[in-house]
Amino acid sequence: MEQTKVYDCLILGGGIAGLQAAIQLGRYSAHQVLVIDAGFGRSTLCQQYHNLLGFPEGISGQELRNRGRRQAESYGVEFVLDTVTGAEKREGRFQVVTLSGTGYTGKTVLLATGVLDRFPDVPGMVPTLGLSVYVCPDCDGYEIQDRKTVLMGAGRTGAEMALLLAERTRDLTYINHERSDVAPELLHLMAEREIRYEEGEIVEVQHTEGFIRSVMLKDGRSFAAERGFIAFGGNEVHSRLAAQLGVPISGNRHVETDPRTKQTSVPGVWAAGDLGVHAEQVSVAMGEGSIAAIWIHKALSPCYNQLNGGDVEDDS
C-alpha cells in the first residue's frame, strides 16, 4: 500500500543514532519526520550501559530507546514499527517499502540501520548481555578489571580480543567455541600473557539474574566466571539498503560518510551510528545522529539554501 504523504526525512532504524537524529530534527518544528524501526537491534540486547554521561548507575538499551521515542514523539516525530525491505530514488524522491507491503516517500533519508553481533544461540547468553557479558572492550573493559573472566569467541577474532582484555585482568580464559583456526603467533602471545586457551562447544551460560556464574561445554567441562566477553566475528552490518540506494560500501561492509556532515556520497542520503565507519559506541552514535540531523535540516531549509546557493557544504 503506497502512502501519498511525502516526509521531509525518513529515518530508517530506531536505535540510538536514529532516535537522537529524530529528536534533533523534531526540535526544528519545521519538518515532517518518520522513523521506521524493526523494534530490535544491538541496543535492545544490552541490559546496562555504564559509560554514558548522566547515567552512572547504568541504563538499559531498551529503556534508552523507550525514553528517546517518547522524547521524539513529543516534538511531532512519527514512528512505524516495521522492517524496510527495499529503497530507491525515483523522480527526485526516496521511496521505501516495508515487510508489511507499505510504501513511504521522503525528500531525504537517514540510514541508521546499525549492526547486530553474531553469537551462538545458547541458553543464558542473551540475559547476561550488557549486564555481565560484554562485546566492546572500549565500552566495558572497565567492568572486568581484576575479575575472573571467560571470553567466548571464535578463531582469530577471539584471540585478538583476548589479548586486548589481558590488559584488564590476569584471570582470563578464551573458549574457542567453533574450534576455528588461531595462528601460532597468536597462541604464543596468549601463552606469554598467561591467557588460558580452550576449545569446545558452549552449550550454556549459567547465570543468576543476568550475572554470569559459569560457562558449560558440550563435553561436560565447566569454567567459572565473574564476567564474560564475546568475540565471534562476522557481525551483521545492515548495509543492504545503503547499497540499494547506490551508497558505496567499504571492505568491512560499513558505510563511509563525510566526517563533517555524515552525508554519504549519494545526495540526500545520510548515515549515522554503527552502520558507519567509526568506533561503535552509544555516545558516538548519539553524536553522529545529531550531526546528520543538523545537516539534513540545512539541506531542507529554503532560507539556508538561499543564503548558501543550495550548497550544504558552504557553512563555515
TrEMBL record:
InterPro entries documented for this protein: FAD/NAD-bd_sf, FAD/NAD-binding_dom, Ferredoxin-NADP_redctase_2
Signal peptide (residue range): none
Subunit structure of this chain's protein: Homodimer.
Domain FAD/NAD(P)-binding: 7-289
Sorted UniProt keywords: Flavoprotein, Oxidoreductase
Top-rank taxon: Bacteria
Descriptive protein name: NAD(P)/FAD-dependent oxidoreductase
Organism: Paenibacillus rhizolycopersici
Required cofactor names: FAD
Entry keyword Metal-binding: no
